[in-house]
Amino acid sequence: MEFFNKAKAVRLRSHLGKYLLADEDQETVRQSRNGSSQGARWKVEFVQGDNHLIRLKSIYNKYLTASGEPFLLGMTDNKVLQTIPLSRNDGFTEWEPINDRFPVKFRARNGQLLRANGGPPPWRNSVTHDIPHRTATQDWVLWGVDLIEILEPDLSNFSHDSERSQHSDKGSASLITHNFKHAFGRESAAMEIFEEASIVRLRSIHDKYLLAEDDEETVSQERGGTVRNARWTVEFVQFNSTHVRLKSCYGKYLTASNMPFLLGMTGKKVLQTLPKRLDSSVEWEPIQEGSRVRLKTRYGQYLRANGGIPPWRNHITHDTPYRTSHQDWILWQVDILRFRHQDKLPAPPPPVQVQADGFDNSDTGSPPTISLRGSRMSKNEEDDSGNGSPKASEGRIIKYEVVDDNGDIDQNIGERKFIFKGNGVDDLKKALKEENVVKEEFSLCSRNPLNGNLYPLRLQLPPNNTAMHVVLVPLSSKVADDFWL
């Protein structure tokens, strides 16, 4: 609750990475990935006489309300709506933030919690209030809170004269940073992500990836995250556990240069360079903010993915944004492509080639192939030959991931693995259903390493218990419409 004492307006981000949105019908609420929409803005009001409760007002001047109307007949969930209460004493518009460090739960007066639903329609993107009893849905009541406007800061709390002399927008930015540091203490959590990672890719708020351009000098953001230019190797700064270096596929470092992006503007270019001596310009400090990360230079500026019209569009700079609408431009989603412990394991066996449906054979005149990634076991699980594969009697290693509507890997689930005994695709699908990760019907797919496209698996699995990597595509997703099932 201490966090909301300085909040004038906030955005609420669900466990699915979607934002709580007030619909244009001025009655319903839902989840949306469009966090820049005005409907995602909620004004914070305090309940008079109770400093533990708040109200959240939409842009339509209606309040987030825990209604008594069932979402579906026979279900325990009730609808969450936008309403104008009949009186100021209407308890259905009052919410108690419960801060388990970060994220936050919002409890209604009836004891139920604001809940962001996932799964197939009609649940998908809906918002209800309920008490989740299943282990799989415990995270559905957790919300990340983004400050997008704060109350006038009390600069008397700052000890340095230089801080007292800052303009109000700079004071706001400092206060936001101060709140995240001391109320949530998440800097170390961001560093923990990079300590686990050997290779990462960074996705901006515009759903584009940080790319090292082919000229081996510039960087940009593009939607294609499967190319090698989107891979960044993580190095640690010696004698400093709070900063990292990011090396491109060309062996050059992500660098905060002193060159202005445009004359007269504060943003400066971010480049790929290979300095003779590794200095502070190639060092970045990861700072956690919700489910995303900010990357701060030694000079206090942030890696920024620009939007808007050219020449800003798709360019990367380092800067400190003071405009409210640009606060998200310094937030990055970190996808771990290779874990650090994998670097210490023996090399995988050669990839196995299997035929799959959906490939175009016209270019090569030969059957298409898929390279299936191998998995290494720990030392006590290796067989006598030391090749890192499980014994034939134990089965094969299956690594799997789940994609969302847009075909992106669902980061809430991540990559998982298990041992599977069998050679049939149908048997593997049954085994994956028993894993109970996807609650609906799905198609079992492989990814073409050449273009990144997904194709259904229809053949027998590779022989000799070779490790495999598969992708689960829910049939209700948009991706499933792109191929014949």
From TrEMBL:
GO process annotations (BP)? pollen tube growth
Question: Highest taxon of the source?
Answer: Eukaryota
Question: What CDD domains does the record tag this protein with?
Answer: beta-trefoil_FSCN_ACP-like
Residues of the DUF569 domain: 1-143, 191-332, 395-472
Region annotation (Disordered) ranges: 343-396
Extract the GO molecular function terms from the UniProt entry: actin filament binding
InterPro entries, alphabetically?
Actin-crosslinking, DUF569, Ubiq_DUF569-assoc
Question: What is the protein name given in its UniProt record?
Answer: DUF569 domain-containing protein
| Gene that this sequence comes from | LOC107888633
